[in-house]
Amino acid sequence: MKHQEKQKEKDISLKIKEARRLFILSCEIVILNCLSILPVTAATEEPVLSVVYGQENANQWTGINDRLQAIGVKYCVIPLTDVKSMADWGDRRVLFLPNVETLTPTQAIALEEWMSKGGRLIASGPVGSLSSPGVRQLLRSLLGGYWGFSLSETEQIKPAKTKIPQWANQTSLFGKVRGGVVIPNDMGTESPAVWNSKDNPAAVVTTERSTFLGWRWGTDTASAAELDNAWLKATVNNYLTAPAPSNRMKKIAGGSQNCSTTVAAAPSAQGGRGAGGQGGRGAEGQRGSSSSSSRSLTPPKTATAPIPRALPIVKPRSSQEAIDQLEEAVRLDVAPNSNEPIDNNQAIALQQELENLIGRVESAHLAVSADAANVSETISEEKQSSRRLRNYASLSVKEQPTQLASTKLGALVMSKDQALAQARVIAKNLPQLIAQKNYSLARQQWLVAKTTLWQQFPVDQRLAQPEIRAVWLDRGTIVRAGSKAGLAQIFDRLAQAGINTVFFETVNAGYTIYPSQVAKEQNPLIRGWDPLAEAVKLAHERDMELHAWVWTFAAGNQRHNEILNLNPDYPGPVLAAHPDWANYDNLGNMIPVGQSKPFFDPANPEVRQYLLKLYEEIVTRYNVDGLQLDYIRYPFQDPSAGRIYGYGKAARAQFQQLTGVDPINISPSQPDLWQKWTKFRTEQVDSFVAQVSQQLRQKQPNLILSVAVFPLPEIERIQKIQQNWETWARRGDVDLIVPMTYALDTSRFQRLAQPWIVSKQLGATLLVPGIRLLSLPTIGAFDQLQLVRDLPVSGYALFAAENFNNDLQKLFSSTQGRIESTKSEPIPHRQPFQTAAIRYTALQREWKFVFQNDQLQRPAQTISDFNNQAEVLRSALNQLAASPSPSKLLVARASLTRFQSQFRVLMSQELKSNSYQVKVWENRLVTIERLLRYGERRVQLRP
Question: Of 164, 278, 609, 712, which has the fewest beta carbons less than 10 angstroms from its beta carbon?
């Protein structure tokens, strides 16, 4: 009863406080009204709001303008192209950035200065997402958060659990919206609205000086006009009626007093689609000319390509925007000394990542120790019985002391055992520190543990098993090599580092790296030699495979034009000769905003015939081992914002013949037709992959076909780039799926790769995760490789040779480099059964090492039963590897299935003390299972 009475008293006290706040707020509004600082709903003498007009929201402007007028607010229009200083942001107190995705560094710095003088900012959509990394970082600070990722479906937005009175009490603010998750990143950030989905991520974040709406305001495809209007009214009123001293400034000192209320070049809504029906695009979009003025953009109704317009020069970013944005969606940032709150999900992620890193360090040491013990059986009996199981990876062979990353790199740190013990304590104590809100100390200790553990990786002994170790050898590196001698040095380094597969850039931006009889022009940067011919020889002399890496539907590259001193708008040699082969967006542009490449129309039969003839020339004229298709997709789009690509002449004609409708007139608001249009474009890519596979395998049956793909969720990927690589894998069109799982740390890498590694949708195709070396620390790259070796995959691919530095060269040479006295290792995609047998033998060595150094004193009969079952499987795999046949494959599969079903029972004691390592062993058994499945298809074994 006492508890209930106290609770009632507490509830009454909270209600009194809330009533007091509302009373004070009402008084302030009355006072402000007396001072003529009126809410936006009242008529004002002059504009209180400035709205930014730019290239990306130009074709949404009708919807934006209609909503602003419906609210009854007077506003100034600021053309983004005019902003070059703080003053250009104007002297009005509130600035609205609706769906503006590109800001220059100068504009962002000027915005920061403007806000420091009292300016208040409202933003919507993926603001700044196409800007440089520095600009994105600054915008995060100004907005208190950033656009994390788009939601695949329309969701309900609702008040947050910790309701903020001035927002939560306005029911008109909540409803169905299509948008994205906003990630708060500032201690002073509040989330007045959240998505009604798992974990209730933020839909809106607000600070004292900014509000960030997680959808494209002003577009009918994102939200209803009534909801948009309610949010803008509430937000503007929030800043105009803010408590003193925030409300004292009517104008921003130093801001320009100019106020234009119209946009001279604002386009009409395209094709009569209305406000935002086909509005601007999100992650990567069209390149439209701001000089299109107000003339009608209604597309022609005949099936021809949209009329192309001049492309403005846009300086491209130094990295792949779509890849960067994908990594942003899985970030696990740990900033030192930050006392920003850590929520429950973040706490779990931090603890889990530290425990996983401990596991990876131990797993690496176990591989080294087991391999060394296999070479030398000189471990003393005393040492064998002195270690606990969880520390078995610390055992070493006396004759071969393991060198750690710390000593290899010259650092002075604690021993491995001390580091592991310290990391375990930190991982255990993290929840307590976070519960005590000691966020800064929690982060500091986490970073110390991570750094210390990284220094414990063994870096001087071989620990790699047979695996695909691939690298993309890029055009720039080939050009810089300059000759066969220069190229030979590159292949020598790669071979010494244990690389066994090279994806050699053969077709880039419409140019071939070799003198072709099919393509229009060899790369002008290549003079007097044939790099592809030399590369094939150099690779085979070093027992490496050479796969020709080709751009498929990307036909040119503005960055390459800059290198060649060509007009930025040059579409590449093929499209220059065949303009009818070009693809377009829904505004008639070959190149969307934020991107730098024109694309072919995959529906054009002449394009398909040209590419097939080109690839046939490569695989028949040169003794390449494989072909890799890159850019096997459409450019990035955002249908919810009306940014769509695929309106080539052939595609429009074919779709119109099938449906009676020109696709240029279709929008996502027409679900049946839109689904047909999406399916049509996806099938153009699907059918081409099947055609390449069938035609080239007829010419070269042993050819390995791989694809470089985006690891986006399937539905989102089909909507945005029409790339359905699960279908290619299930049909057996390709041998290797290489997802570009690029990330700057291992936890992000795992989050990107994990869904595809565990996927059951890939048939017998092997998955080879991609690792980007750019800006990745050397030991960070090693950590990602160790994760790959602990997961059920058969190897990795490194992007790119350009970033393969001397530190990586030394590290790889030690841990996976070739041993001169032994014969070449099998490569999984070439010799799957031999790979499976050798990898299983390595597993047995680890189990033997664990049992020999086990203090748990398991019964001898238990060890004997385990060894007997393991030996049955070893024998079956070895027989299959020596002489493959359907019957031996059947026996090997049956033996593996039986062993897997009993494995956890046999390893029950290890499961209690080191569950990570048991999972690693289970993953490696799954890898063997997948190799058998792939081998069955590859060598066409059928019982």
Answer: 609
